[in-house]
């Protein structure tokens, strides 16, 4: 109660000093302008929260799609059964781990996003989210790019290095991993939006 | 001469304002504390500038190291001469383009970084840098991760997909591309630091 009063008075003094200095109507006008400013930042915070929900969907889709790839070809030789799974290739294993970490982080970040909605002027939670979101931009992009490089190789092969394309045989496998890569890139783009929005909301005025 | 005097006075007042809080010197003390805050933000801006110089070095090193890889083996068959170059593999071409773009952007961003040093309270330049730095985090990380996936494959091969390791033959080539990937990851980490520092400097108080 007392701290609330103190805040109003402080704000009143600041803005009257800044703008015109109408002494009589000052506290009400200031309260309103503060509310409007808070409303703008609150809108950003709500959009932040919604984007995080979409990012959870994309990251989880990428993780599960890649994690459940397992295609066994219907023919086999005496020594070898042809089977493709994500853990044959380290890049895909990294992809699954990176997207799983991103999903977990996103769920844990939801409470901080809610704090930003409830208190639009608090900068601590936003700064924390900005730092970790930046790390996650890097992590999800790295996973997606590494997997994309291998997916490209699986589709096209490389004559210079004598690497053959394997997607003629493993067509389902290739479709699944391509979809997972796309989902992960979507998650990375959402993380980039989150970083930029945090920067906007941290801005002074 | 005059500015020199003013500085001396400010510094003197700052220390008295910070430590003891003499009521009589209040307006001066406020000016001084604002000055000190500007100094803190200016320090971040100078560090930002220095980090950009390091990032230019790392990105240029990555670009040139990868762009000049060209190893021809001393033996050849009737039909084929064994040669490895960065443009045999699309991931390496993307790597060179991404790091070249990052180098160019970094050079163009230096004036904006200088604006932040000269005017530590201006948020426009910082916000612009934050947005583009975030994009560059993504671009350099994507290039580095895609190249790293291929480098790993070149070193180790993959038995499941029947891709052979080519680094036994192309040892110089593999050393060069590994070095380029490391340089690019260093550039990506510096970009992440730049984003976080911009977020810190954009913070209100």
What does this structure look like?
Two copies of one chain form a homodimer. Chain A is mainly alpha-helical and 205 residues long. Chain A has one domain (39-202). Chain A has five helices and two strands; from the N terminus they run ααββααα. In chain A, strands 1-2 form a two-stranded antiparallel sheet. Residues 1-26 and 28-32 of chain A have low confidence and may be disordered. In chain A, α1 (2-18) packs across α2, α2 runs antiparallel to α5 and α4 (124-156) runs antiparallel to α5. In chain A, 75% of the residues lie in helices and 6% in strands. Chains A and B meet through α4 and α5 of A and α4 and α5 of B.
Quantity of strands of chain A, as a count: 2
Radius of gyration of chain A: 25 Å
Biggest interface, and residues per chain? A-B, 46 and 45 residues
What's the SSE pattern of chain A?
HHEEHHH
Contiguous helical run count of chain A: 5
Q: How many domain regions of chain A?
A: 1
Poorly predicted ranges of chain A: 1-26, 28-32
Q: In terms of quaternary structure, what is this?
A: homodimer
Helices and strands of chain A: which structural class? Answer: mainly alpha
Largest sheet: number of strands, sense, barrel closure of chain A: 2 strands, antiparallel
Overall average residue pLDDT of chain A: 80
